[in-house]
């Protein structure tokens, strides 16, 4: 079962310390209206294109692990940067080829659009049947949903294992703040944010902990969509001075990050003063225009989100993932 944020965790200066100085109202949402449904997926195998090579932006040609599969040693809370991989997805990757036998099937689209970060995942078959975990990310292009479990479960998993996600969160509206929209967020995640000290200030802003504040000017692949209900977009890391300035080499899977001057209300756009909150959902890439991926959680085109640096603003701590 899903577990609440562990209140005894020692936190770096950030969200909780800031919230102690100012009384915040917990985030409220239309909980009674949200529909609970089931979607299913299976563990996707890794795939490699006709050309096995990836060409990096500096011209290097390499073969690296990529999307899909069971990733044993990079899970929620682990580095999304210090790895020999390209778009590696943390933990376990799911898809549903459906009746159409395609990643673009209606079944797979439903799996992606309706799965919310923090939703409960139940393993239906195999040695680990009956164990549960959490949705921790979405990845565009390959159209995968990433899920994580207790580490003791991993040796009992196999490619093709069937899993059911108890989806709830689609249609979420925040009811005690204006100008902030929620995407891809489960009630479990919003409650975890509240438990970690997030909330609404007296002047009508959503204060929330993030590990990084990232300028929209360096965001790349994933731009141009008219919605953010599926997939992600990538942080380009080709300018080392920018990487150092914004501490990008420390990004981890599951980090809650703020994209500054970015509005995600109806797609992903640059907009001065806007703020969007997302989660690091896949790992680094050195291909031009690509990098670690961000799945959207919250956005405000009018800047009604106030991100506060908190080193523990990560799903590992928010959901108490072992």
CATH fold field value of the largest domain: tm1086 (SG structure) fold
How many individual β-strands?
A: 17
End-to-end Cα distance, whole Å, is 12 Å
**Could you give the order of the helices and strands?**
HEEEEHEEEEEHEEEEHEEEEH
Quaternary: single chain
| CATH level 1 class label of the largest domain | Mainly Beta
Decide which structural class fits the backbone.
mainly beta
Largest sheet, in brief, is: 6 strands, antiparallel, barrel
The CATH superfamily of the largest domain is tm1086 (SG structure) domain
Number of separate structural domains: 2
Poorly predicted regions are 1-20
Evaluate the radius of gyration.
18 Å
The average pLDDT is 92
Shape: globular
Helix proportion range: 10-25%
Shape-level CATH architecture of the largest domain: 3-layer Sandwich
How do the strands line up in the largest sheet? Answer: 1-4-7-6-5-8
Q: What percent of residues are in strands?
A: 25-35%
Write up this protein.
The protein is mainly beta. It folds into 2 domains: 15-34 and 172-318, tm1086 (SG structure) fold, CATH 2.102.30; 37-167, Thrombin, subunit H (Beta Barrel). It is built from 5 helices and 17 strands. The protein has helices at residues 15-21, 106-114, 187-195, 240-245, 315-318; strands at 37-43, 54-55, 61-62, 92-95, 120-123, 132-139, 144-148, 162-167, 181-182, 199-200, 206-210, 212-215, 233-234, 256-263, 269-282, 293-300, 305-309. It has a 6-stranded antiparallel barrel. Strands 9, 12, 13, 14, 15 and 16 form a 6-stranded mixed β-sheet that branches. The relative contact order is 0.21.
């Amino acid at each position: 079962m899903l577990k609440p944020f562990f209140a005894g965790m020692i936190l770096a200066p950030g969200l909780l310390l800031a919230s102690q100085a100012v009384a915040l109202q917990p985030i409220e949402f239309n909980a009674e209206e949200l529909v609970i449904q089931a979607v299913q997926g299976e563990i996707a195998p890794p795939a490699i294109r006709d050309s096995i090579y990836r060409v990096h932006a500096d011209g290097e040609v390499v073969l690296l692990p990529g999307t899909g599969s069971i990733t044993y040693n990079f899970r929620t809370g682990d580095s999304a940067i210090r790895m020999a991989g390209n778009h590696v997805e943390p933990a376990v990757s799911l898809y549903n080829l459906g009746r159409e036998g395609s990643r673009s099937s209606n079944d797979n689209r439903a799996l992606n659009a309706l799965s919310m970060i923090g939703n409960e995942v139940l393993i239906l078959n195999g040695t680990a049947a009956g164990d549960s975990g959490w949705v921790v990310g979405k990845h565009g292009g390959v159209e995968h949903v990433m899920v994580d479990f207790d580490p003791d479960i991993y040796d009992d998993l196999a490619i093709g294992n069937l899993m059911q996600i108890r989806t709830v969160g689609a249609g979420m509206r925040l009811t005690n703040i204006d100008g902030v929209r929620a995407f891809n967020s489960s009630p479990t995640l919003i409650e975890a944010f509240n438990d970690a000290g997030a909330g609404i200030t007296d002047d009508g802003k959503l204060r929330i902990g993030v590990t990084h504040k990232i300028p929209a000017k360096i965001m790349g692949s994933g731009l141009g969509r008219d919605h953010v209900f599926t997939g992600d977009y990538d942080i380009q890391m080709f300018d080392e001075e920018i990487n150092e300035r914004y501490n990008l080499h420390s990004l981890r899977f599951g980090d809650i990050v703020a994209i500054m001057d970015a509005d995600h209300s109806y797609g992903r756009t640059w907009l001065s003063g806007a703020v969007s909150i997302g989660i690091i959902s896949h790992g680094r890439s050195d291909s031009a225009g690509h990098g670690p991926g961000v799945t959207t959680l919250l956005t405000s085109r009018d800047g009604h989100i106030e991100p506060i640096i908190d080193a523990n603003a990560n799903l590992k701590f928010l959901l108490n993932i072992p």
